[in-house]
Design brief:
elongated, single chain
Length: 306
């Protein structure tokens, strides 16, 4: 099969099917008949030597091959649309797009929710959805279009040539306590800090780096509670003498909203980079690039506030 034999409308149909997971809805989106979409799907199956979609009830489920094609097909169509509209500059306020961001609970609170609020004013039809971040699955999700951005606060960037990595800012760890906590007004000794009850939020790897700072004194944190979410940790910290350690950018939000108090830590600041990742197939996607820029702007504002 040669490129000259491929009708560009077939790629438009494939993109619609990937979005809608339904022949009927894809036909409505494109203003074509369901039979025309079915015929185009049969042609696509022949071209790619793959089923591309299998039926599950009323939905079409994309195969691994279809998921592999998804980000490239989208970028090709975006480029074709750009060629057909060379004189019209990109205007986010007139653009309709959906993006998925993989992030931890902390990443959602720090960046995803502020991004949603900003887009409501700048680009009301550009929507951002959240999905949980799983370090071992993020690269595959980016490659196959299941998500468009990953906000990483966990560790070293991937060694993958097709994955772009941009450091947004360096965050630090902050420890929060309830108002009136015995350790709130003075800098505790390392032994007193370690012996206090600590809350460990499962999605935030913060206890391990603290223990590394304390190991020179042969101390480890006393973890009294392991909780599923920041919300549970917040409630425990407000109603006990337990210590809650979080990224400082998130701690700032909780201080302002819930009145928690930041206490002194008996060790040097623990810094870690907060990074944005995306697949290289979106490098020239104007809307994707614009959303990246807004995330960078948010990060700069937060870094300044911190």
């Amino acid at each position: 099969m040669h490129l000259r034999e491929v009708d560009a409308n077939l790629l438009v149909t494939l993109d619609a099917l990937l979005v809608d997971a339904s022949v009927t809805r894809a036909a409505e989106r494109l203003g074509r008949s369901a039979s025309a979409i079915s015929h185009a799907l049969a042609k696509l199956r022949e071209i790619f030597a793959d089923e591309l979609f299998v039926r599950a009830g009323q939905k079409l489920v994309p195969t691994a091959k279809a998921l592999e094609l998804a980000p490239t097909v989208h970028v090709i169509l975006a480029g074709m649309e750009s060629l057909l509209r060379p004189s019209k500059p990109f205007d986010p306020s007139e653009t309709s797009r959906d993006f998925a961001v993989a992030a931890s609970e902390a990443g959602e609170l720090i960046l995803v929710q502020p991004l949603r609020q900003r887009l409501q004013h700048l680009a009301p039809s550009v929507r951002v959805g959240w999905m949980p971040s799983h370090r071992e699955e993020n690269i595959d999700a980016l490659r196959h279009g299941r998500c468009h951005f990953v906000i990483d606060i966990e560790g070293a960037p991937p060694q993958a040539p097709d994955i772009r990595v941009l450091k947004l800012f360096d965050d630090t760890l902050a420890t929060l306590v309830r108002p009136g906590h015995p350790l709130a007004k003075r800098k505790p000794k390392a032994a007193a800090f370690a012996a206090s009850d600590h809350i460990a939020v499962n999605s935030l790897p913060v206890i391990e780096p603290i223990d590394r700072e304390l190991q020179a004194q042969k101390l480890v944190c006393k973890v009294s509670s392991r909780v599923s979410s920041v919300l549970v940790g917040l409630l425990l910290a407000l109603n006990s003498d337990a210590l809650l350690t979080l990224p400082a950018s998130l701690a700032l939000i909780l201080e302002q909203q819930f009145g928690l108090v930041r206490m002194h830590q008996p060790f040097r600041p623990i810094a870690f980079p907060l990074r944005l990742m995306w697949h290289s197939s979106y490098d020239r996607d104007e809307c994707h690039e614009w959303v990246r820029g807004e995330l960078v702007n948010l990060a700069r504002e937060m870094e300044g506030a911190g």
